Amino acid sequence: MALLPFLLEDALPLPGRDWLSLLTPAEEDSVRLRNAINQLANLQKDTSITFDKDQFQANIDVQQFTPEEITVKVEGDNTVIVEGKHEEKKDQHGYISRHFVRRYVLPQDCEVKKLQSKLSSDGVLSISAPKKPETPKQEYREIPIVRTGPLKKVEGGDTGKKS
């Protein structure tokens, strides 16, 4: 009977019956613990972070949350906090509440003021910040000297105008 939870986990539920009710309490706890561990492992799969020459980008799967349940904040000079939270909701197994907080420390060369967040229709939140443009090395260039007429003031108040 110990293999039954693992064999039935991906199978369709029995018609009109909850298959977990067929298990002993210890086996039921084992199944629930295994599902919780799988969900934690999936959190790692549901997030990708990239740093390339142009920007920082984080993609987070937030399809379990509505846009109103998600917040993106900047803390300090370079920390982005993403939070998703919803209160208890009824689902096919009973009631569930979800809450997550992710913190990302942006690289020093990112422009935090230009941080953007976008939510796709399939529930992926993308957070991106462009990198600051590289400051060019100080270059010296020669400035040509242009010759002009005299700039000396003429004595006696004569400005060179004729009346």
UniProtKB/TrEMBL annotation:
Q: Name one GO biological process term.
A: response to heat
Which SUPFAM superfamilies does the record associate with it?
Answer: HSP20-like chaperones (SSF49764)
The answer to keyword Membrane applying to this record is no
Per the record, the domain of life is Eukaryota
Report one GO cellular component. nucleus
**Sorted alphabetically, which CDD domains does this protein's record hold?**
metazoan_ACD
**Keyword terms:** Stress response
Report residue spans for region: Disordered: 122-163
Domain (SHSP): residue spans on this chain: 38-146
Q: Where does the record place Basic and acidic residues bias?
A: 131-144, 152-163
The terms under GO molecular function for this entry are: unfolded protein binding
Please report which protein family the annotation says this sequence is part of.
Answer: Belongs to the small heat shock protein (HSP20) family.
Q: What is this protein called?
A: SHSP domain-containing protein
Which species expresses this protein natively? Answer: Ceutorhynchus assimilis
